[in-house]
Amino acid sequence: MRDRLLAAEKVTAIDWRDGALYLLDQRALPFEQRWLAYTDAVGVAEAIRTMVVRGAPAIGISAAYGLVLALRQRLADGDDWEMALEEDFELLGEARPTAVNLFWALNRMRERLLRIKAGDDVLAIMLAEAEAIHESDREANLTMAQLGAELIRRHQGSEQAILTHCNAGALATGGFGTALGVIRAAYLEGMVERVYVAETRPWLQGSRLTAWELAGEGVPVTIGVDSAAAHLMKTKGITWVIVGADRITANGDVVSKIGTYQLAVNAMHHGVRFMVVAPSSSIDLNLASGEEVMLEERDVSELLEVGGERVGAGVEAFNPVFDVTPADLIDVIVTEKGIVERPDAAKMAQLMCRKRLH
Ligand code: MRU
Question: Which residue segment(s) compose the domain that 230 sits in?
Answer without folding.
Answer: 157-352
